[in-house]
């Protein structure tokens, strides 16, 4: 989706920057194309509309820097606005959670580092972003996989869901979400087993 979007925007910008002086009509045409590109990339209509309006507002009456062409100036405004929309108000890299607890499902190959990475991410979110994190292991395939996560949790000071013997992964995930909701956690890290042909579906 983003590749297609960047191709489309790239085309619009190429046409803009080739021109020395832009007329208002040039900008209008370009913004219409930007709007179409956003809609075709599945961006919702209100978001696309607000986006184009914000760019228009900033582009109109802006002092154009001498060293760049008006076209490049518009490209910069569009770029800044894209960063703003995609990144939101918060710090770059900060996790945005609209409706806690947010589940994060760790998937990947056996031995790929899912469990280790679960703990690393949990530690980072706890320490750097002040999030309350609950980790739960859904790995019912590998012996001691659940204990592995529990031990890591103790080492990094992050809570893990108590282990209940014989429970299946779906039940564990549901229990983790319930527990997280009751306990006021922001994030639930669900550490899964590797998918394999022997995995029950
Ligand atoms: N060198 C190195 N080893 C790692 C890293 N992450 C995990 N491992 C090791 O790779 C092995 C499998 O990791 P694990 O997290 O259990 O993988 P999982 O099966 O996907 O849960 C363990 O021995 C880890 O200590 C890493 O970033 N670097
Ligand atoms: Mg694992």
Automatic annotation (TrEMBL):
Gene Ontology molecular-function annotations: GTP binding; GTPase activity
Gene3D superfamilies, per database record: P-loop containing nucleotide triphosphate hydrolases, Signal recognition particle SRP54, nucleotide-binding domain
A GO CC annotation given for this chain: signal recognition particle
Top-level taxon of origin: Bacteria
Segments forming domain SRP54-type proteins GTP-binding: 101-200
Gene Ontology BP, a term: SRP-dependent cotranslational protein targeting to membrane
Keyword GTP-binding: yes
Record keywords: GTP-binding, Nucleotide-binding
Catalysed reaction, written as an equation: GTP + H2O = GDP + phosphate + H(+)
Pfam families xrefs: SRP54, SRP54_N
Annotated InterPro entries: P-loop_NTPase, Signal_recog_particl_SRP54_hlx, SRP/SRP_N, SRP54, SRP54_GTPase_dom, SRP54_N_sf
Signal recognition particle SRP54 helical bundle domain ranges (all copies): 1-86
Localization per record: Cytoplasm
Keyword Nucleotide-binding: yes
Protein name as it appears in the record: Signal recognition particle, subunit Ffh SRP54
Gene source species: Rubellimicrobium mesophilum DSM 19309
């Amino acid at each position: 989706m983003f590749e297609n979007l960047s191709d489309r925007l790239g085309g619009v910008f190429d046409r803009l920057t080739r021109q020395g002086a832009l007329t208002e009509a040039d900008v209008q045409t370009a913004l219409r194309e930007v709007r179409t590109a956003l809609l075709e990339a599945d961006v919702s209509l209100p978001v696309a509309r607000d986006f184009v309006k914000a760019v228009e507002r900033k582009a109109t009456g802006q002092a154009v820097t001498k060293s760049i062409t008006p076209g490049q100036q518009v490209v910069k405004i569009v770029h800044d606005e894209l960063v703003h929309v995609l990144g939101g108000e918060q710090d770059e890299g900060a996790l945005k959670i609209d409706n806690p607890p947010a589940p994060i499902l760790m998937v990947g190959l056996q031995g790929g580092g899912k469990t280790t990475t679960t703990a690393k991410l949990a530690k980072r979110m706890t320490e750097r972003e002040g999030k309350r994190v609950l980790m739960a292991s859904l790995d019912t395939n590998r012996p001691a996989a659940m204990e592995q996560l529990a031990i890591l949790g103790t080492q990094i000071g992050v809570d893990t869901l108590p282990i209940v013997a014989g429970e299946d992964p779906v039940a564990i995930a549901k229990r983790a979400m319930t527990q997280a909701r009751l306990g006021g956690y922001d994030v639930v890290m669900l550490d899964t087993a590797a998918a394999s042909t022997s995995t029950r579906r």
